[in-house]
Amino acid sequence: MASRVLVLNGPNLNMLGTRQPEIYGRETLAEIEALCREKARALGAELDFRQSNHEGVLIDWIHKARGTQDAVVINPAGLTHTSLSLMDALIACELPVIELHLSNPHRREPFRHDSYVSRVAAGTICGFGSHGYTLAIEAAVRLTERG
Ligand code: DHK
């Protein structure tokens, strides 16, 4: 059976392409979604790709993933460093979580060095720009392959 992977994107990632391209790259979120769809198709996985600027919306989507998805790939953006509630939702969904960042937060300002999501993630991919999304989908499928 195909692995079902939910890819979530947090606040401000709808601005990719124009938002600090020297840090986040020049690709738009729609272009990154297309890369993800291509990767999922190649791996025979089902992909649900979403973005919200609202913490509660992301939390609702994570709750709905319980029992309906096999893994969650999440770029929590700024919520990475602030949201205990997002972390709790990820625990509650009882799915493997892959944390993802376009940039490498550890090379940036100290307030980006800590992550609530890392505490509950199976692993973290960061610093590889949009390529990180395809790496994360590959990792999610590896973790969840359903025989
Ligand atoms: C995206 C953001 O919006 C930041 O708040 C994070 C992350 C890093 C990224 O690199 O994708 O600190």
Task: Explain the overall architecture.
The protein has 147 residues and is an alpha/beta fold. It has five helices and five strands. The protein has helices spanning 21-24, 29-43, 55-65, 84-92, 131-144, and strands at 4-9, 46-51, 71-75, 97-101, 123-126. The mean pLDDT is 97. The protein has one domain (1-28, 44-77, 93-105, 118-147): Dehydroquinase, class II (Rossmann fold, 3-Layer(aba) Sandwich). Helix 4 links the parallel strand 3 (71-75) and strand 4 (97-101). The structure holds 3-dehydroshikimate. Residues 12, 75, 77-78, 80, 101-103, 105, 112 line the site of 3-dehydroshikimate. 3-dehydroshikimate is lined by residues 12, 75, 77-78, 80, 101-103, 105, 112.
Draw up the topology in text.
Blueprint: E1 4-9, H1 21-24, H2 29-43, E2 46-51, H3 55-65, E3 71-75, H4 84-92, E4 97-101, E5 123-126, H5 131-144
Helix pairs in contact: 2-5, 3-4
This protein binds 3-dehydroshikimate.
- What is the percent of helical residues? 25-40%
Could you name the CATH topology?
Rossmann fold
Strand order of the largest sheet: 2-1-3-4-5
Biggest sheet features:
5 strands, parallel
Structural class: alpha/beta
* Basic shape: globular
Strand content: 15-25%
Low-confidence stretches: none
Can you write the helix and strand succession as a string? EHHEHEHEEH
Notable traits:
147 residues, alpha/beta, Rossmann fold, 5-stranded parallel beta sheet, globular, binds 3-dehydroshikimate
